[in-house]
Design brief:
- This is Chloride channel protein, CIC family.
- There is one protein chain.
- Strand 1 and strand 2 form a beta hairpin.
- Helices cover 70% and strands 2% of the residues.
- Helix 10 crosses helix 14, helix 10 crosses helix 15 and helix 13 packs antiparallel against helix 14.
- The termini are far apart.
Length: 568
């Protein structure tokens, strides 16, 4: 019998070392779970409750629109609203949106400080600059105004107001639990995810929309609670409407892979230009409305009624523009419209959305962008299939891809919009065509606007979020909170302060570091005097000095905190 080789002491020591490391890691994990587990579970429970509340809010919002449309237009089926509108006398078609505009204008005049409807852009701003909080009073007023707008003939979408309404819910919860900024943003993401999921019956897209558009990062710590809330919102939708997709597509959506892909590349570019035209039309119409209101002295409460009159006039001839427009979108996706109808309806929808938004009537741009995209894709597909009948697939496949491409470019959300299109239609077999069109449209549109409709809205208000945290973090710090007053151990001497004041170099205490940094750059001074200006002929009141090194330290700390949150 052969003698067995002795066991290697080195191998045995290595195995024991690995076992000890594993046991140590397990014990450490159990200690962390005992210490942090309950609080984490509590947070997830709060996320679940927010998801349910946001889902119910989305459901009530949708039911509210249907109820008002049922009263105003005697509509039994809101998806076929235009059929009921055509049965009315022309003067009712005009008067109903005017009445809705008057009521909307009164609500916004009484309960907001600027007569403006709050929407997704304000939620993005709240996430970035306000610790995940939004205005509650103005938010509730905006939700009421949007329900009335969409119920009485406004041509906009229901998803934007629902997102802001969900953000109001999360803001209230943040106030109750005294949440810090990171927790506030996470709860805001939960509310947004649930609202989008409940609106579209799209849990995957809802979660990714909150991360991609509102939080604008994909931090791992935020993913689990957002998914929980998104699923809760979807369950609310399915309990009310069943497990059905929003649109039903024909069964002949097939893609001749290699030959037809160049056509979808071209559709993506066309869709990007259409999306830019839609956004620019809204902004141009808003500027025109502001100019007319200023020149005529029109009270702000009357502006929505004037827009309602214009919409009513268009709806007499083209009732398809009224409301959310899912009926027309469905007709485009199923190929029920002719080529000239698709083109005319797309142009009129762009005009109607611009009038609604410029008239401060309420609503969002998500549903309109889906409708315009489906009509664009159908028109493109009609031309493509007639020019190349032997190598082209179904026109409705182009409508599906166009719907995703225009919406993704408007929202600046290629990932979540692609998934929303899939979940809205249940068609996962044509994903390549949709992805190709979406990628080209967002790449083109983002170069022609500030990345998306929402970020461009904020840029027009002077809120610079499009370039990322490095562009907007400075605006979060007030000079008075960073300056050194006279009691500081290393305060500036009064003599040096007066020298700079005599040169005209000073800053107000309520200014931000965003205002201060250009002054440092131009003058290359170590500090800037912080003063409040007195009456004419009186010297300014010196409060202290803002040192450049202190401003840079605050900025660096904020950048580090943002990076830590995004990668946690």
């Amino acid at each position: 019998m052969a003698e067995q080789p002795p066991e290697d002491d080195t191998d045995r020591g290595f195995l024991r070392e690995q076992l000890d490391d594993g046991l140590s890691a397990l014990a450490n994990g159990l200690r962390i779970m005992r210490r942090r587990g309950p609080s984490q579970l509590q947070f997830w429970f709060i996320a679940l409750l927010i998801g349910i509340a946001a889902g119910l809010a989305a459901l009530l919002f949708r039911k509210g629109i249907a109820a008002i449309q049922g009263v105003a237009y005697d509509a039994k089926d809101v998806r076929a609203l235009q059929e009921f509108v055509t049965d009315l006398d022309w003067y009712w078609i005009v008067l109903i949106p005017i009445a809705g505009g008057l009521l909307t204008g009164w609500i916004l005049h009484m309960f907001t400080d600027d007569g403006r409807v709050r929407s997704v852009a304000d939620v993005i701003e709240g996430s970035a600059l306000s610790g995940g909080r939004v205005e509650k009073r103005a938010g509730l007023a905006s939700a009421a105004a949007s329900i009335i707008t969409l119920g009485t003939g406004g041509s906009s979408g229901r998803e934007g107001p629902v997102v802001h309404l969900a953000a109001v819910i999360s803001s209230w919860v943040c106030g109750v639990i005294k949440a810090d900024s990171i927790t506030g943003r996470d709860l805001l993401g939960c509310a947004v995810a649930a609202a989008v999921s409940a609106s579209f019956n799209a849990p995957i897209a809802g979660a990714l929309f909150a991360l991609e558009v509102v939080l604008r990062h994909f931090a791992v710590h935020a993913f689990a609670p957002i998914v929980i809330a998104s699923v809760a919102g979807t369950v609310i939708n399915r309990l009310a409407f069943g497990d059905v997709t929003e649109f039903v597509l024909p069964a002949n959506n097939t893609l001749d892979f290699y030959v037809e892909l160049p056509a979808f590349l071209l559709l993506g570019l066309v869709s990007g230009l259409i999306a830019v035209a839609l956004m620019r039309a809204i902004f141009w119409a808003d500027d025109v409305g502001n100019h007319i209101q200023k020149r005529t002295g029109m009270p702000r409460w009357l502006r929505p009624a004037c827009a309602g009159a214009l919409l009513g006039g268009i709806a007499v001839w083209f009732p398809h523009i009224i409301g959310v427009g899912y009926g027309t979108t469905s007709a485009a996706l199923t190929g029920e419209l002719l080529l000239h109808e698709a083109i005319i309806f797309a142009i009129l929808k762009v005009a109607a959305v611009a009038i609604t938004m410029a008239g401060r009537m309420g609503g969002g741009v998500f549903s309109p962008s889906l409708m315009v995209g489906a009509l664009t894709g159908l028109a493109f597909g009609g031309i493509a299939t007639s020019v190349f009948p032997n190598v082209s697939g179904s026109e409705t496949l182009y409508a599906l891809a166009g719907m995703g491409a225009v919406a993704a470019a408007v929202l600046g959300a290629p990932i979540s919009t692609t998934l929303i299109v899939f979940e809205l239609t249940g068609d996962w077999q044509t994903g390549l065509a949709v992805m190709v069109a979406v990628s080209l449209s967002t790449a083109l549109a983002s170069r022609l606007v500030d990345r998306s409709f929402f970020l461009t809205q904020l840029e027009r208000r002077g809120v610079h979020l499009a370039a990322g945290p490095q562009a907007y973090l400075l605006s979060m710090f007030r000079v008075r909170n960073v300056m050194r007053d006279g009691d500081h151990p290393w305060a500036a001497t009064e003599e040096d302060i007066w020298k700079l004041i005599e040169k005209g170099i000073h800053i107000a205490p309520n200014a931000t570091l965003e205002d201060a940094m250009p002054i440092f750059e131009i003058n290359n001074d170590v500090f800037i005097p912080v003063v409040t200006m007195g009456a004419e002929g009186e010297p300014p009141d010196i409060l202290g000095a803002l040192f450049q090194v202190d401003a840079l330290k605050e900025y660096n700390r904020a950048l580090a905190a943002t990076a830590a949150e995004e990668h946690s």
